Amino acid sequence: MKVRMRARTRWRFARRVSVTDRMHVDDAERMQQAIEAAAAVRADTAPNPWVGCVIVSAAGEVFTGATEPPGGRHAEVVALDAARDAARGATAWVTLEPCAHTGRTGPCADALIDAGVARVVVALEDPDRRVSGGGIERLRAAGVEVAVGTQADTVRAQLAAYLKHRTTGRPWVVLKVGASLDGRTAAPDGSSQWITGGAARADAHRLRAESDAIVVGAGTVRADDPSLTVRNVEGKDPLRVVLGSAPAGSKVLPALEFSGELTDLLDQLGQRGVLQVLVEGGATVLGAFHRAGLVDHYVLYLAPVLFGGDDARPMFAGPGAETIADVWRGAITGLTPLGGDVRVDLAPVGPSAVTGPVPVVRIGDVPPFRDPASGGA
Predict the structure, then answer these.
(1) 65 prior amide bond cis, ω within 30
(2) Which parts of the chain register pLDDT below 70?
(3) pTM recorded for the entire structure
């Protein structure tokens, strides 16, 4: 008897779920699929945003698309090409507002309208001045039902670099450093290969692949002669930027050599279409970016290593906080084990026009690690 009562209770509860509630659940699930599609092309699309799209036909068939490299199709068109006639009467979930202008490709809003898509669910409005609500307006004017805001926080974090560039003209700044647990990056003699293990170094190369430019100081170039290329993961090499002059014959060449204010550098990189810049060192450069308040996101690779003294090289060089009241405080937004090491994701505390009031960053499963047989940075 008790079993039958529980069964009836579950059935009565299930019937209370409204069509609207079910639609919201479906929207979240489908948008998550679009987010995952976008994540797969993160390193391939700049200066365009990495967007995902899922189309489900009236018959329940599912078609997925993601942005192709510059000059290629946008996510919506990739999904529409896969769906063909099945797009008529379908619902589309897209992580960023469909464009309404003609660039290298035609307007995605028009493509959705022409295909007969009945409903479009958008996570975020595109802040690009050429779009900025225009795609949504065009869809609604054509009689397409449009819902905005599903999984907005997640997509806002995923597209943080693009959103900052489109709203400020500057790239998203990621500061990366590998260190011991006592905060040291090299021994007193300058030797540092390797503090962290292979899995952490491979993850750092994924960061390079996601970045459009990488910045180091001339001192690091003279001391380590790094190549600053992407290895052991898929992705193109970023623009290499040296603060100062690189010696002739350095592996980092050809590179952009820059002298001046860091804010001017960010302005110039933004004008070049750089969406994300990775600051790798050395300690003087890291300290300068940190003290200037120019870092949007910190990635610390910490190894279970202790130098055990104060003579090893620190993460940051230059003057720090004079009192405990002046220390910089951030929010830990991710802890990811990488072999024997751990990746710590750290964000400034406080409201952000890009990521919102609560810092949120990409935290996902790390792809299987294949030990790289490589030397040099």
Answers:
(1) no
(2) 1-25, 351-377
(3) 0.85
